[in-house]
Amino acid sequence: MTIAFLSHLDLNLYLFRLPIMKKLVEEGHKVYAVCPRGDKFDLFADYGIEAIEYKIERSSLNPLKELKAIYNIYRAIKPLKLEMLHTFTAKPNIYGTLAGKMAKVPTIINLVEGLGSFYIEDTRKNIIVRGVIEKLYKLVFSVTDRVVFVNSDDPTYLERKGVIEKEKIKIIKSVGIDTEAFDPKKINKEDLDVLKKALNVKDKIVVLMVARAIWHKGVREYYEAAKLLKSIENVQFILVGDIDEGNPSSASRDFLERGEVMWLGHRDDILALTALCDIYVLPSYREGVPRTLLEASSMAKPIVTTNTVGCREVVKDGYNGFLVPIKDSKFLADKIEILLNDDNKRKIMGENGRIMVTEEFMITHVIAQYLSLYEELIQKRNT
């Protein structure tokens, strides 16, 4: 089989699609990474994957430029004589499917990893943009062979709106997590002690949040919860994640640098920081399925997150963590406080999370589901 994975970021393919791409190469398939050139573009060759460049302006809404982007994708994939095209995220799903049909690719799969920030608040602009997205998705989904979703809420919503037919829906929860890489038993205790000393948290209970520093991730609620719990001794709240320049939802540096939270900005040692923490928090307003929650679960950390799309796929309330209402700092603080005061509950919930993630989200399980889907569609095409 000749298959291409299409994204508007080489980083997206490299970080989240590489395991399935490598598996396909191992099985003798020809695999392409079709994406704009970035820092990871040339690294695909190390795994036997050929990278094919196309150009797109990610932030553009100019109709002429968008048509050009579709044509650029068409030109990139037409010579490849693809048997299958797998697209990821909104623009590649829409433009890639249209370009794929122009290039006569016989089988096209889309992946919707969440409906995005336009579905968080009912502003006039968001409602208009949602209408446009849904009209375009309805067109695309009518000609694509299958649409993969990572949670159950998004396809239910789109089916109810008449955007997609039930038989086109396939749910494969998350992109998977490497539970061997994120294994608490493999953490070097001496290295962890060095990091704790560097952060001055050696004898403290650490509450960690890893996310872009934008309001929709629940940054404000996290800071407010930390303020509500400041009277509890030997506790350190930490936020890892940079501001998002140009994003109107981004928190300011001034906000992030004050208060009871230690803001570390961007970090590359997420595994070590997750291992270091005692409680993991993500008060996001909406997600696909957050990879950070999978990482925390794999590292046997109890989680406090919001009872919202995506987040509730990873946490069973009272089993491996707590689910709280969005935008409710007091409720968030109350659930964090329960875990701060109960070492045994933290331990049991963390162990439950590790069990849950190995049973439902392990990368090998996810890869197997994709391989099964590919095989099903190939057999369907050949009959």
Tell me what the structure shows.
- The chain is of the alpha/beta class and 383 residues long.
- The protein has 2 domains: 2-176 and 363-382, Glycogen Phosphorylase B (Rossmann fold, 3-Layer(aba) Sandwich), CATH 3.40.50.2000; 184-360, Glycogen Phosphorylase B (Rossmann fold), CATH 3.40.50.
- Helices cover 42% and strands 16% of the residues.
- The protein contains 14 helices and 13 strands.
- It has helices at 10-16, 18-26, 63-77, 90-102, 124-141, 153-160, 189-199, 219-228, 253-256, 270-276, 291-298, 329-340, 343-360, 363-382; strands spanning 2-6, 30-35, 50-53, 84-88, 107-112, 146-149, 169-171, 205-210, 235-240, 261-265, 279-282, 303-306, 321-324.
- Strands 3-2-1-4-5-6-7 form a 7-stranded parallel β-sheet, with helices on both faces. A 6-stranded parallel β-sheet has the order 10-9-8-11-12-13, with helices on both faces.
- Helix 8 (219-228) links the parallel strand 8 (205-210) and strand 9.
- Helix 8 (219-228) crosses helix 12.
- The longest helix has 20 residues, at 363-382.
- The chain is globular.
- The chain starts with a strand and ends with a helix.
- 44% of the residues are buried.
